[in-house]
Every structure is written in C-alpha cells, then in structure tokens.
Amino acid sequence: MRAARWYGRGDVRICDVPEPQVIPGHVKIEVKWCGICGSDVAEYLKGPMFMPAGVHPVTGCAPPITVGHEFSGVIVELGDDVSNFAVGDRVVVDPYAICGECFWCRRKEGGSLCERLNIIGFFSDGGFAKYVVVPAKQVYRIGDLSFDVAALTQLTVLGVHITRSAMLKADETALIIGAGPIGLANLQAAKNIGAKVIIAELSEARRRVAREFKADMVLDPRKDDIAEAVLNETEGRGADVALECVGNESTMRTCFELTRKGGSIVAIGFSEALFPTKVNDLIKTKRKVIGTLGYGDEFGATVELLQKTEHTAREMITARIQLEDIVDKGYEELVEHKDKHIKILVKPE
Ligand SMILES: [Zn+2]
Ligand SMILES: [Zn+2]
After folding, report:
1. For residue 296, is it within any domain?
2. Residue 302 belongs to some domain of the structure
3. Is the same domain home to 84 and 117?
4. Which region, left, alpha or beta, applies to residue 31 given φ > 0 means left and ψ of -120 to 50 means alpha?
5. Which CATH number characterizes residue 226's domain?
6. Ligand showing the shortest atom-to-Cα distance for residue 153
7. Distance between Cα 230 and ligand 1 center (Å)
8. What residues are paired with 317 via a beta bridge?
9. ipTM metric
10. One domain for residues 129 and 253
C-alpha cells in the first residue's frame, strides 16, 4: 500500500510499504480521511519535534514513520481478543494512546503528560496510508457521522478540553485571539456550552468561518478596537476567559489586559515569550494562568459535539487532496497559503 512517511526535516515521501498486520488487542482500519495538522507541518519544516530522532523508547519505532493522526475509517479486521467492535464499524481514533497506569494516567491527567505515551502518527505508524493498525481502546464509533467531519475530532477535542480546563460557563464571555484551527475548535466548544464569544483574527477567510460558527463578535485587529469591544460587552470588567491561540507576545499581553479579575488566561499558541505580568498583579487580581497541551478523556464527548454540529463543522475543511499530492498540495500549500486554510483532508486510497 502507499503511505506518506516522515524521513526527516523537509523529507516526507510517498512510499510502498507492506500492509500492517493486526495483532491481539488491536484493530485494522481502512482510512477514509486523514487531516493534516499544524503539528505535521511543524514536523515537516522543523522536525524532529515530536518525531523520535532514533528508536522511540515506548513503541520501538524509528523514522521513517507513517505520519497522520487525525483520521477516520472503517474497521476491516479484529485482533484475536477484541470483542467490543465489529468489522464494518465506522470509527475515529484517539491518537493519544496513554498507558493508563502511570501517575498522570491514574489521576485522569494522562493526555500529553503520560509517561509511556504513544502518539499514533508520531511515535508509531499513522493514518496517511490505506490501512493502519491501532489499539482497540483508542477507537470510538461515530454512528452515522460522515467520515470527513469525523476526521475533525482530533482537532475539535482540543477545544472541548481547553474550555473545560478554563471552566468556562454558559453565562460567561470568552475572548479568543486567533481563529486558526485551534481557535475555531475553541469557538465551537465555547458556543456548545452556551458562552458568549468574541474572537479576533487577521485573515478574512478565517473570520468568515468564525461567523459561520456563530461567534457573537468577530473582530479584525487591524480595524477594530478589541479592548473597547470586550469592555463594552462585559460592563467594563473584561472577559471571563481569554484564550491566546496565536503564540505572540503582544496578543498574550492583550489577553492579560482584557481578562477580568478572577478570570483565566489560557496559553495555547507556542511562544518563547515571557508572561507580561508581575507576580503581584496576579496575586492582587486573582487571575489564573493555564497552560494546556493535548486533552484528557473528552474524545467521546467530542464525537457527540460533531454529530450535533456536523453541517457547520464541515466549514473547517478548506481542501481535499489525494495522498500522492500530500507534499505539494498539502504541506507546501499550508506553508505558502496558511491564511487561506483551516484543515486540508487527505484521501489515502
Ligand atoms: Zn493534530
Ligand atoms: Zn500513563
């Protein structure tokens, strides 16, 4: 079968590889759609970041590794002792295969913190291939949710996790800076809770999707006064929760300035910047700063969210391409025309 494999920085190749063989406790899935994640692009441009430089200590895999962790598909074969799934089940896969036993997993804080984590598509072969074999415990049924929208689960779950971590409530206002994939996932999750959302984004294409996702206010930072808008909407208090999805010092400062006393600032966009505040200010304002990466046990809830919002969620898909074109029309396109895109889906057949 054909597969897109990461060999090294700037070197992703489409190769012929043997079909993976199912093993006990695992299922074999025929991949229908697999999304290209920002982390895949980062790995292509600057890797190895998540990718192992040599043999991975948990999985024993080493590059080349088949990439792709945002996929949906159909179960075509079951491992010997798998009884809770059937051939033909329509499914999506949680790529964070946690150990379930370490300190963090026992506290239900596994996700990115698990000590023996396998991220499928980074530490072992992923979904940019016709078939993939994964542990059955990572698999979720999608009912009649379409395969393309189901491939957005691995993105949308981040928003569900972040809004839960920030304890955003229905009667509260969230300020989201940046309407890229994660900003939009946060918007979707926040609207699902019933919160009011003000979102700021430079790209018109992304602002359009934010409006489709029913953001209460969509701002263009070049034209609109974000501070004025947030303070007007919150009787001068500031947002209850501010989500920094850009990874920029000045937007982080904006988040601090526009969060109410006792509110939360969530750091989501990667950045080398220092927090623009004094310890004294945090103490006196009782603001909380939250760091977040990955997610916890929200995968099932996210499938349900996408079942409810299938039609609008599809707006995230800005291109569909064939596996053979993944470098030119996928990775390179996302580098050259980042602002035009949210999610590019790849068809591995
Ligand atoms: Zn991803
Ligand atoms: Zn663990």
Report:
1. no
2. no
3. yes
4. beta
5. 3.40.50.720
6. 1
7. 30
8. 343
9. 0.97
10. no
Predicted pLDDT of residue 290: 96
- CB half-sphere exposure, 275, CA atoms < 13 A: 18
Asked if 186 and 283 sit in the same domain, the reply is yes
Structure tokens at 307: 């079942």
Axis-axis angle for helices 204-212, 181-193 (nearest 10): 20
Tell me the angle at which helices 153-165 and 181-193 cross, rounded to the nearest 10 degrees. 60
Structure tokens at 289: 């700063």
Ligand nearest to the CA of 293: 1
Tokens 């596994």: give the residue: 110
- The CA-atom distances, in angstroms, between 258 and each of 89, 123, 181, 263 are 46, 39, 23, 10
295 CA distance to ligand 2 middle (Å)? 13
**Nearest 5 degrees, angle CA 2-CA 7-CA 9?**
130
Confidence at residue 94, expressed as pLDDT on a 0 to 100 scale: 96
Give the pLDDT means over successive 10-residue stretches in the chain (349 positions): 97 97 98 97 95 96 98 98 97 95 89 92 98 97 98 97 96 97 97 97 95 97 98 98 96 97 96 93 96 91 96 96 98 94 94
Residues 52 and 168 in one domain: no
**Residue 186 and residue 245 in contact, taking contact as beta carbons nearer than 8 Å:** yes
Cα of 289 to ligand 1 centre, how many Å?
23
- 66 and 163: one domain? no
Q: Is residue 298 part of a domain?
A: no
CA dihedral (74, 3, 123, 336) positive or negative = negative
Beta carbons of 61 and 121 less than 8 angstroms apart: no
Number of domains composing the chain = 2
Ligand 1 center to 95 CA (angstroms): 9
Range of the domain at 97: 2-151+309-347
CA of 181 to the centre of ligand 1 (A): 10
Quick check: is 137 in a domain?
yes
